[in-house]
Design a protein that fits this description.
Strands 1, 2, 3, 4, 5, 6 and 7 form a seven-stranded mixed sheet that branches. The protein is about 40% helix and about 35% strand. The protein has a single domain, classed as Roll (Nuclear Transport Factor 2, Chain: A). A hairpin with a 2-residue loop joins strand 6 and strand 7. The chain is an alpha+beta fold. It is built from four helices and seven strands.
């Protein structure tokens, strides 16, 4: 009798839990999915700074959608070929003589995600390893999209920033 009662209680609990977990509008699963999107979008920022610090053009280009745009004051690069040329020929961060490390303060990063679209804002602080000084600081505002299961930059606009907390 005791075994029958225990099995009955366990059965009721399992049915209750299954019913809660199968609802498509479950706030917990939506929160988890949104957090996963935020994490994936934040990885774009991490990989961006890794690419500039290591001068890794292949990593940098893996962050952009095929028809992405990159706008810096006075110039817009359209598509991955033009964006690659910008990084290799015009970006100070990729110049062979510069030994810079790039990072962003976490509190200066903002992310939004809504379905397969989102935004990413961060500041870039470039430090000269030899001189141990901040040499460049910029903002980057990006439109991002989930394309074939990956978050990619579709539009990046670079602007000036002031170095303050």
């Amino acid at each position: 009798m005791r075994t029958l009662l225990t099995r009955g209680v366990v059965g009721v609990l399992l049915v209750s839990l299954a019913a809660c977990g199968s609802a498509s509008g479950n706030p917990t699963s939506e929160f988890t999915a949104q957090q996963a999107d935020y994490w994936a979008i934040s990885r774009l920022q991490q990989q961006f700074h890794e690419a500039t610090s290591k001068k890794d053009i292949d990593l940098m280009m893996s962050l952009y959608a095929p028809n992405a745009t990159l706008t810096i004051p006075g110039q817009t690069a359209v598509g991955k070929d033009e964006i690659r040329q910008f990084w290799l020929t015009k970006s100070e961060a990729f110049q062979p003589d510069n030994r810079w490390i790039s990072e962003t303060p976490a509190y200066k990063m903002e992310i939004t995600a809504n379905g397969d679209k989102g935004t990413l804002h961060f500041e870039c602080h470039y430090f000269d390893v030899a001189g141990k000084t901040v040499v460049v600081y910029l903002t980057a505002d990006q439109e991002v999209a989930r394309i074939d299961g990956r978050w990619l930059i579709t539009d990046m606009v670079v602007g000036s920033a002031s170095l303050k907390p």
